[in-house]
Specification:
The complex is a heterodimer of chains A (about 325) and B (about 220). Chain A is an all-alpha fold and about 325 residues long. Chain A has 11 helices and no strands. Chain A is globular, with a radius of gyration of 19 Å. With about 220 residues, chain B is mainly α. Chain B contains 10 helices and no strands. The relative contact order of chain B is 0.14. Classes of the chains: A mainly alpha (about 325), B mainly alpha (about 220). At the A-B interface, helix 7 and helix 11 of A face helix 1 and helix 5 of B.
Amino acid sequence: MSALAVAAAALQVVGVLAGAPLVVGGMRQVRARLEGRAGGGIGQPWRDLRKQLRKQQITPSGTTVVFALAPAVVAGSTLLIAAIVPLIALGSPLDSAADLFGVVGLLFLGTVALTLAGIDTGTAFGGMGSSREITIAALVEPTILLAVFALSVPGGSANLAAIVAATANHPEQLVSPGSLLAFVALAIVIIAETGRLPVDNPSTHLELTMIHEAMILEYAGPKLALVEWASGMRLTVLLGLVANLFMPWGIAGSDPSFLAVLIGLVAITVKVVVLAGLLAAGEVFIAKLRLFRVPELLAGSFLLALLAVTASYFLGTPTS
Amino acid sequence: MTQATFTGVLDLAAGAFLLAAVLIVWRRELRAMVRMLAWQGAALATIPLAVGIYQADAALIIVGVIVLLLRAVVLPLLLARAVGTEDHERRESTPLVNTTTSLLITAVLTVLAYAVTRPIIALDPSPATRAVPAAFAVILIAVFIMVSRRRALSQAVGFMMLDNGIAATAFLITSGVPLIVELGASLDVLFAVLVLGLLTGHMRRTFGDTDLDQLRELRD
């Protein structure tokens, strides 16, 4: 374990911390421009965060420690994911924990913490938002696990660094039916998990449609800042993860040089910016799905993930 | 064409073939279903074309071109003409099984196809036979579409998919059907679709609807 590998992992965490609000701001800006608005600028989420962090702490009466701790749990679990996934370099100090199943578990730890906080407030909106969020999460989880399983078949391991390294060494595996289907399935569940269109509209506060916003309606000041920062980080980390799982070019090796770390940083920044821009541009053209049709979309992505597993298992490996 | 490219193309074609079937189950608009059927036809034609180029077999390439013209162009065009122009005719009415359940049933059918074709693969493991489960899954999905849809046209789409699946299974297992057999089968399908199109048109003119469930009731 070289000092540079540790430095690269630290750089990942700092980069995600500093970059997440910029990614969110950039996506809002792309959307605004495509809709013919001027937009608030890329730095607007950072300015919002600064404003909210300066405000005083307010705790709604009747809430318990669950409500107070949830933002910290969400932010902490997201930062931990940022530290273990291979974004800049492969040989993270936490490599032995960099298991895709572990990442999925951490992701759901954050989701569950927020839904409990939504119920803890005892308001109608909080409970409604939590109920919707957990419905979606329950449908998303099997799909993510199946897609992960499909991805780990060619590499022979569920370790993230092993999967990324296997893809980097054999890029021709990417055009197999298995990984193409897994990509589509993973893209749909990540859109659902991060609460983007067409599953949830991140910019709505309309009581009939909001999911994520309904849960965090009672938060204000620094806690709200933390929750929003964490959801931005979640989006950034997941975009980076998908980028490296399917386009691992430019990532530094397990024993990187200073230059390789620098190239890795630039490569992941470019990949995340491009993916975020595409996602934002795509969102302009679609409307939110009716809540009752969301299970249809998620069942479809579950089927795609299952097909990915069967395809990579039956077509990929020579049957003996 | 090298062995690796051949396997890659064959796998991609089989994957696209199965994916088109899944999308047909997913979508409700009849036009989208017909469009997906055209893509499925193209994926099907890729199989004999790839095998023909790999084995340098001119007859198979001719079969591939015929399949491409017929199943990716002519039949979808004929079916698209039979889609009604009125609004309520353009979408499938509520299917007997809702979409979420249909998709899950499709998943079960796919796994079932993999399970029952294992002995066939074990007979002669080659890149082509390993893709047989995908073709077999399409046959099962097509039968499911035919029993679960209400409109005459979506049942016709199911019938076409069934035929696509059988043709794909034949191409993959035997790596090539004699030209005359393929011509006979293709002509059969062409006439079936012509007759189905005519029937749908007559039904719409007589009853104003193509919902087959409504035809079960006796009327004066």
